[in-house]
Amino acid sequence: MSKFKALVVTGMTGTGKTQLAIALAKRLNGELVCGDSTQMHDGLPILTNKESSFKDVPAYLYSKYAPSEEVDTQRYSMDARKAIKNILSRGKVPVIEGGSLFYHK
Q1: What are the tens digits of pLDDT across the range 79-91?
Q2: Fewer CB in 10 Å around end: N or C, the chain?
Q3: Would you call 70 helix, strand, or coil by DSSP?
């Protein structure tokens, strides 16, 4: 298994993880990778408090899947690894953000 160097921001719901991850990504030349089991689904901005300021920082896997789509850890892991490799290949820092440790490996 490959090892990646990445920053992970995790914690309880409503604690400002997304805003912190965006600030860190801006400061550290980073890009965001969604690690939240709800934010990765499209069409749930109020339920997830999905951040609208991703325009300032490239972000991956947010709203990637339809609300009815089931995403297991294997599928998420493949998509996240692809995004992380892409970020690292350009000399950037992956900042994985989300409260669901279910998807963090």
Answers
A1: 999 999 999 999 9
A2: N
A3: coil
CATH architecture of 7-69+88-103: 3-Layer(aba) Sandwich (3.40)
SS3 label, residue 7 = strand
Q: How far apart are CA 34 and CA 57, in angstroms?
A: 12
Tokens 């892409």 locate to 86
Nearest of 29, 34, 43, 17 to residue 79 by alpha carbon? 34
> Per-residue pLDDT tens for 28-54?
999 999 887 777 777 755 444 555 556
In this structure, are residues 44 and 50 in contact, taking their beta carbons and an 8 Å threshold? yes
Domain ranges within the chain, ordered by starting residue: 7-69+88-103
Q: What is the pTM of this model?
A: 0.80
